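Q&A log
Question type: sequence-to-structure
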Amino acid sequence: MKVIANLILYALVGIIISACGTGQYLGFEKKKVPLKGKRVSVLKDISKFKKDSLSTSVINLSAPLELNDWRQSYNSPSHLSLNYFSNSKLNKFKKIVKGKGEGSNEKILAQPIISNNKLFFLDARGNIYSFDLIRKKLDWKKNIIIKGDKGHGIGGGLAVDDNFLFASSPYAEIFCIELKTGNIVWKNNTITPVRSTPTLLDNKVIVLTLDNRTLVFEKEDGSLIWEHQGIQNTTSIIGEPKVAADGSLVVVPYSNGDIFALNLINGRELWKQTSVNIELSETSNSFSDIDANPVILKNIIIVASTSGKVFAMNRKNGNLLWEQYLNTSQTPLVNGNNIFIINNNKELINLDLKNGQIRWVTEILKSFSNEKNNLWLTPILINNQLVTVGGDKSLLVLSPYSGELEKEIRLPSIPATSPIVVKKKIYLMLKNSEIISVD
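Response status: OK
Response body:
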């Protein structure tokens, strides 16, 4: 009997140690109440569990418009996208000019720009080029790498007005350069690198530094007008958004997930919002970067973050209008009543601008990418068609009304930025620093 009792005791101890929930069953632990909500895989296609909340509103686009210039990245300080008119058949490519391509320590983050038939671009080795598109000839070339640097340039970019070119530098400098000669008019130190392109508005040059400082310079002489400091983030992804501006409003996205609305004249804080869910653990929010440019459309501001949220805010007070849980590092295409987004699951998504509800989702086929090259860049609207580049040297044309793939074209090399459209022609910058036209 003693042996049997011991066996029963050992068996009971074993059950207590090994069985999940036995402590609750025997009354040793308080019963755990399951969290409310539907369980879904974080990698599951969003279209499979959002069907009950799809938007059925009619898709409206702006009419195609011909542009004569593209003077700063995403074509405007507000980053609002147009429906660009082009006569390209999207079936062949032509080399325009080439600089120094990317290496292991150098990355191109900024689009080329065009003004008065002059093409300007910054290559991966700190060279600025001015190329005449009519004469098909290089006007000048200027290197902005600081003396003694062995090449660790990530980002930087250009913006232009009628007479001057403004360059932000990953070597912690901002330049004003004369358009005709390439001579430096003024330069100023930013202390830390500037990966994003400058934003130009009302005779002011606005830049965002790597340590979360917003600097506003006087365009004429480079004097510092005001400065705003955010909280520096310890973890970030390679990339940096461009500050958005419209009227007297400056919208600044910092890498820790904070979004500030500032007064353009004096830098005064108007309101603050965040992309981070404060109820989540610190680990869950470890990558709180906002690498996408904010977009300002009338009284609405759209922000997309890598922390897994796209949301709309009221321009006046920053109050949240709606939010959608999508993870992206790419700037949303906002046009008409639509937001087109490439998410990090390699899906192209149409959201209803009014409420953030999903209209359709198209998965980008894995066959268009490979393990090394699987990044897709911000789409652009051309002739009522969506065009996106990325993956393994691919250009995709899709319907904005259904997301249906209409055409796939093989590019000569990996694209570095989204296309631009000027005077009916499409231009694209590649990672080897070659500028091509898409005819």
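Response note: Confidence is low (pLDDT under 50) at residues 12-47, 278-287.
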